[in-house]
Amino acid sequence: MPGLSAAAVAVALAFSLHALFPALPAMTAAVGLGLLAANIPPAAGLVGGIGRPGLNVAGKTLMRAGIVVLGLKVSVVDVLDLGWVALLLILTVVLLGFAGTYAICRLFRLPEPVSLLIATGFSICGASAIGAMAAVRRIRHADTVLPVAMVTLCGTLAIGVLPLLMQPLGLTPELFGAWTGASVHDVGQVVATAQTAGAAALSLAVIVKLSRVILLAPVVALAGLHQRWSLNRVGAAGSARANGGSDAAKQPPLVPLFIVGFLLMVAVRSTGWLPESVLAAGAILQDILLGAALFGLGSAVRVRELLGTGPRALYAALVSWLLMAGLGLGAAHLMLA
User: pLDDT for 87-140, tens place per residue?
Assistant: First the structure.
């Protein structure tokens, strides 16, 4: 309870900061508050001690619940309205972004699990995608901290930098919105960036972004399939005998239950049966759940330990951010050509 209570207070503060400074997404504020709590002595004792069990629950269980509710934002009908050419371009951005970001991270000698999580977060939907991939690949909670920090940093950077490039690049509001939706990481960061160019930019940005979000399910399913295949290979080589035949029991599910829940919510939203009041309540619930989860993850980040990785992670993240921006801009031009 101490950790969950701290997360609840942090979410309330994050919402308050967003209300005071609309350009600051509530999710970014939640991560920032977690970072502060982990590195300011009076609060660090709470989040690192008696509050840690509850904060771990927030970072894991509430993250999965938030991903389920995220499905209520995605309408297959809206996504299909973009047309097949746009959808193929978005798919290309996600695949090239994923592969390119993973290669960049490995080039900078980041560990394989961290590289996988950064690639997932940058190419699909930020911290939510990181949480989903970590669950299906059974990556340690500690290994999610750096990817969440990097995706939050670069997404926040996009909020400040992309609007400044709109006029120099000669972008129309629609083109800017498509660029934002195709390249910025988290949904909240997309909204904060695109709204600077008006309603037309915001509307297109959100639809393009949600088209990337819907790819979360197949990407996670493929990761689960690869994990099972890898374990089967190890078992065939004799590892199962060495471990008393326990490898099969440890195989992760092909599609985690929370991803099934996400797809069910997408299906329900796509029917058009839900009233706006229910969708609005779902959006608030999603922000609360993900805000608590991101505070929990942020509260595990010790700046001293983070700096121990050297500048490699930061350089890899910045190069990956430039890659996603370039891919997104190219796709936006082709989409609206």
Answer: 999 999 999 999 999 999 999 999 999 999 999 999 988 888 888 888 788 887
Residue with structure tokens 């001293």?
Answer: 304
Question: Which tens digits make up the pLDDT trace of 3-35?
Answer: 888 889 889 999 999 899 887 788 888 888 888
CA distance 193 to 189: 6
The DSSP code for 81 is T
Residue 227 near residue 65 (C-beta atoms within 8 A): no
DSSP secondary structure of 112-138? HHHHHHHHHIIIIIHHHHHHHHHHHTT
Global pTM reads 0.79
The amino acid that residue 162 corresponds to is L
Cα separation values, 245 from 137, 228, 233, 237, Å: 20, 15, 13, 12
Residues 162/193, Cβ–Cβ less than 8 Å: yes
The backbone torsions φ and ψ at residue 49, rounded to the nearest 5 degrees and listed phi first, read -120, -105
The answer to whether 217 and 263 are in contact (CB under 8 A) is yes
| Amino acid code (one letter) for 283 | A
Would you give the distance in Å from CA 223 to the centre of its chain? 16
| 3-state SS, residue 283 | helix
Give DSSP secondary structure letters for 213-250. HTTHHHHHHHHHHHHHHHHHHHHHTTHHHHTTT-TGGG
Cα separation, 92 vs 51, whole angstroms? 42
Residues 6+ apart with CB under 8 A from 139: 113, 116, 117, 133
Cβ atoms of 186 and 25 closer than 8 Å: yes
The span from the CA of 45 to the CA of 71, in Å, is 36
